[in-house]
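Can't paste images in this forum, so I'm doing it all in text. The chain is below; anyone willing to post the predicted C-alpha cells underneath?
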Amino acid sequence: MKNEISRRKAMMQIGSLSAAVLLNCENILAGNQQIMLQRNIPGTKEKLPVVGLGSWIQFDIGESPSEKEGLTEVLTNMNKLGGKVIDSSPMYGKAEQVIGDLTAGLDFNNNFFYATKVWTTGKQSGIDQMNGSFLKMRRKTMDLMQVHNLQDWQTHLKTLKGWKEEGKVRYVGITHYSASAHEQLEQIVKSKMVDFVQVNYSIKVRNAEKSLLKAAQDNGVAVIINEPFDSGSLFKIVKGKELPDWAAGYDIKSWAQYFLKYILANPAVNCVIPGTSDKKHLVDNMGAGYGKLTDEAGLKMMLKYIDTI
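Text version of the structure:
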C-alpha cells in the first residue's frame, strides 16, 4: 500500500487544524454546493460525479472484520458525498469479490456505477473472465467493462460490442496506466470503438494534455483518470509544505484536493478514481468535487508553485 503510506506521512506534516477541517462529511455538505460536480457521459444524458474510487491494493483484503468494516465505511461515506464510480479489475486480487460482498450488504448498492476490466488473452478466456467478474461483483449488468492495459484489445472489443448490443454491459472502455500507451489509446479513441478511455494523468505527469484528452473530448469518449497522485509520489514532494494562501480561493483545503482539482479543471475529464481504504482520505478526495473549479490563472499558479517545491 505504497501510495497510502506516503499520503499518511504527508498528511501528518500538513497540520492538525487543516486536517480536521478536511475529514468531515458534514463540513463538505454544509457549503453552498450540496451536490458533487457531475459531467455528462458524452452522447448520453447520464451524468457521473467527478470523483470516484479505485480498488487496486486497497480492496485486495482477507477476512479481517476490521478491514471489511473500514471499507464499508469508505463506501458509505462515498455514497453520502455523491461519489458513484467504483473501478476494479481481475488483476487486483480479491478486489472484485470484496466489492461484490460489501456492496451486497448495502441498501444503496445500486447507487454505484460499477466498472471493471478484462485482463487476459483469447476470446473464450476473455468471456470466461468477464463472466467471473459479473459473479464476483454480483452484477447482472456491468455499467462499464474495459480492456485492461490494451491486452488483446481487438479481440475483447469485438466481444464487448455484442455484449453492449445485448444489454449485458452498458459502456465499453479501454485503459492503460502509462504515458507510453497514450498514442495507441488516442488512435482507438479516434476510431470511436469505445465509450470510455481510462488513462494516467497528474499534475506532474501531464502527457495526456498533449493530445489524448482533447481527442477524447472531440470524439465523444468519456475519460476516467487513474494515478492522480502518481503512485503517491506527489505527497512526498509536498511533505512538510504548506498550501499556498491563494489555494483557499479555489476551495482547495488539502494537497490531495490540490492535485485532484488540477485534473478536474480539464473539461475532458469525467471522473478521477483515487484509491483508498481510509475513510478520512475518502472524504478528503470527495471534497475535490465540491467548490470552485480552478481557472486558467489558477492552473498556472498551481503548476508554478508545485514546480518550485
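The CA atoms of residues 192 and 283 lie 35 Å apart. The first strand starts at residue 38 and ends at 40.
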